[in-house]
Fold this sequence. Notes:
CATH class: Alpha Beta
Distance between the termini: 27 Å
Largest sheet: 8 strands, parallel, barrel
Oligomer: single chain
Radius of gyration: 19 Å
Shape: globular
CATH topology: TIM Barrel
Number of domains: 1
Order of helices and strands: HHHEEEHEEEHEHEHEHEHEHEHEHHH
Number of helices: 14
Amino acid sequence: MIWNLLKTVLFKLDPEEAHYASMRFFKFGLSIPFVSNWLKSSFKTDNSQKVELSGIRFCNKVGLAAGFDKDGKWLNELEVLGFGHVEVGTVTPIPQEGNPKPRLFRLIQDESIINRMGFNNEGADALAKRIKSFRKQNPNSSLVIGGNIGKNKTTEQEKAIDDYLYCFKVLFDCVNYFVINVSSPNTPGLRTLQDKKPLSELLSAVQMLNYSYPQPKAVFLKIAPDLSNEQLNDVLEVVTENKLTGIIATNTTISRPSSLQSAKYLISESGGLSGKILAERSQEILKYIRTANKDLILISVGGIMSGAEAAARINSGADLVQIYSGMIYRGPWLCKEIAETLISPREMNKD
């Protein structure tokens, strides 16, 4: 009821403005003692579904996908919402403004979103400083933080690896795991890094740096939903050869399914499509990867709009789930709903 009212107000704003306004409003609410107590109680999540993966302890299986908090500005607020992990970024070596506005569009009828943000962020060094500050101020926090890294738009393709290695070095001491993002459709040429040869070269360089540290980090690859089975096989081969921890499936799609119902002028906007419309394809890719490889840690993201959908992903082989668009359409209590669904065996077996 509360969210329906807030959504009515927020949906009158430009999507990008609404994003920042809602988080500023939430942060302000947490600064008022009696309001803060009510909010924390409202979002308090039963974290009895703790899980340890690759040496990382997650207080629950629900995470926030990259792109929501690119610069790590709302880590405290996101922990209050109940997330077991938050993926910050995508971050690049130097700050960049991203693509021209408008660059974020709601497909309300489809509970989906098109974005062409273009890795707008304040740079890896600023992000590292902010995470370290959060860690220092919240020594008892159990929030797992993942660092999603990419390349600057102006970086030449043959020097892309250098960008990933720079971000990796800068963030190494403050994140729990890394995500190599080669699947965003909004940075020219980025998706060519998913091809077998350049992907192998990139992951090999990252892992060489990773294993130069006494305690290497978990490293995931985030893939696009537009890959064919043949391309997925190539990705799996490269990921296995380079001993990555796992795969995050999936990023946004450049396709425009015929089932979309929103206005044609919205559907025709360029950028990556996410939200409910992506659920079926993300589920398909998850099942394909899990069937092909039983050992990789898989994080499923894309179209998860309910506890039941999240449970279906876990039953299909996901170790963790992430949400983003679902928060926009179903509200900030979605994290709690999913976390509590996943601790109920009866709910887990519905699908």
